[in-house]
């Protein structure tokens, strides 16, 4: 069973963070430049929220308004669902589904280790399935090589 820590090692531990006081358009530019869908909102080294493309789209795409003056704090999610590195990818998938989120900060003892996305999770699951298929094919090949026609 693959853990969130193993998934982080595979993808990398990095994450991009912004201050709650940062302008929303600046935060959106960071996401576009890095081709990511979320930013952790940090204040003094502490996780205080998460800001995603979804937050922006719902605020300005549906409600209208001028994003030029908006701050990240005005639309971030402060009640952040997180995952611990020792938890399984199955637990991660269940939490994302239950909380209806696409990004989970990985937090160990209050320290942010990284972020996993639904894409990271799917890649990890597919890689695990490929390994299992490869092992089964090897097992079958060994068994067929050991059988003799009677």
Short description:
The chain is an alpha+beta fold and 150 residues long. It has helices at residues 4-11, 24-34, 53-62, 89-99, 118-146; strands at 17-18, 38-43, 46-52, 103-108, 111-117. A three-stranded mixed sheet has the order 1-2-3. A two-stranded antiparallel sheet has the order 4-5.
Summary keywords:
alpha+beta, 3-stranded mixed β-sheet
What does this structure look like?
It is a single chain. The protein has a single domain, classed as CBS-domain, CATH 3.10.580.10. The mean pLDDT is 88. The protein contains five helices and five strands. Strand 1, helix 2 (24-34) and strand 2 form a beta-alpha-beta unit. The longest helix has 29 residues, at 118-146. The protein has 150 residues and is α+β, with helices and mostly antiparallel strands. The two termini are 40 Å apart. A three-stranded mixed beta sheet has the order 1-2-3.
Could you outline the blueprint of secondary structure elements for this entry?
Layout: H1 4-11, E1 17-18, H2 24-34, E2 38-43, E3 46-52, H3 53-62, H4 89-99, E4 103-108, E5 111-117, H5 118-146
* Mean pLDDT across all amino acids: 88
What is the element string, with H for helices and E for strands? HEHEEHHEEH
The low-pLDDT segments are none
Note the total helix count: 5
What fraction, in percent, of the residue positions are helical? Answer: 40-55%
Largest sheet entry = 3 strands, mixed
Tell me the total number of β-strands.
5
Overall structural class, as computed from helix and strand content, comes to alpha+beta
- Morphology: elongated
CATH architectural label? Roll
Query: How large, in whole angstroms, is the Cα Rg?
Result: 20 Å
Oligomer: single chain
CATH homologous superfamily identity: CBS-domain
Question: Strand sequence of the main sheet, in spatial order?
Answer: 1-2-3
Estimate the strand proportion. Answer: 15-25%
End-to-end Cα distance? 40 Å
CATH topology assignment: CBS-domain
CATH class reads Alpha Beta
